[in-house]
Specification:
Elements lengths: L3 E9 L9 H24 L10 E3 L3 E2 L2 E3 L18 H8 L3 E3 L7 H4 L10 E8 L17 E8 L5 E7 L6 H14 L12 E9 L10 E4 L19 E4 L18 E4 L4 E3 L10 E3 L2 E2 L13 E2 L2 E7 L9
Antiparallel strand pairs: 1-8, 1-9, 2-8, 3-8, 4-5, 6-7, 10-13, 10-17, 11-12, 14-17, 15-16
Amino acid sequence: MPMRTFKLTLRPESAFGTPLAGDTLFGHLCWALRWRQGEAGLIKLLEGYTRGQPFAVLSDALPAGLLPRPNLPASRLQRAGDPKVDPKQRKADKQLAWLPAEQAARPMVDWVRVGLDKARSVQTEVRTQNTIHRLTGTTGTGVFAPRQVDTLVHAPGAALEVYAVLDTDRLPLPSFVQALADIGVNGFGRDASTGLGKFTLVGEAAAHSWPTPPGARHALTLAPCAPVPADLDADDCHYQPVTRFGRHGSLHVLTGRPFKRPLLLLRSAAVLAWRHPSNECPAFHGQGLGGVAQPISAAEPATVHQGYAPVLPLALPELKEAA
């Protein structure tokens, strides 16, 4: 059965210590399923994960109704014959980090001109944390010294959307929704034990499909991605790299070896160009990383990392047509 895409809406209930990135969210999903279905259940779900058969591919949590601005050079955002954009205007355009999802099928040069400021989605706040010394009953020096940490705060009433590509034969939608709700209750990311990273699910998960512009050969990634070079036209892919210095959560934090090997990925909002165009854009792209054959963790060699990313087709002109 082909994998199906669903859209789920989250409502933040606290500040976050870690951005809700798709690959990190997948790690939390694995732990949530581990607690719901046991280790044997998780191992069964992960069969084939590093061979192109993921049971779930998750996007970043995006502001409701918005998509990230594709990572494209200015030359790819102009029509042939358009005048050069003023450098100040070009810088201002780059601040428009979010684009309306409902207009994703528009030609790229038109879509990027209706963006929204990044600052509208989330704000960074600095908070002071203290650790009380049990013997003195107060703070002190070293690990007991008050410290300031950054947190991510969403506007009151803000909603986030996650796009999940699921193999519902292996992971039924109700089981996935329950696992995601568990993550929201227990908290996501850094300092979850202090109350950060809480969220609730809003409404029902809805089946979702992206409009496919005629002749679309490009796609936008919605999560960090480990691309498959054989499938892509490298000359027309645009991206920024990101290095993940992963760390285990839950029980593996207590092993004394919580750190994973660094991974080099494409940052979200990369633009991919298929080497062999097709009338149907795949629901996701990438590869599963880790596993026993290529371990990324000394503490748990079977650890995997989501190198897959949901993608949506883009109406981007071919290079010869661009300015």
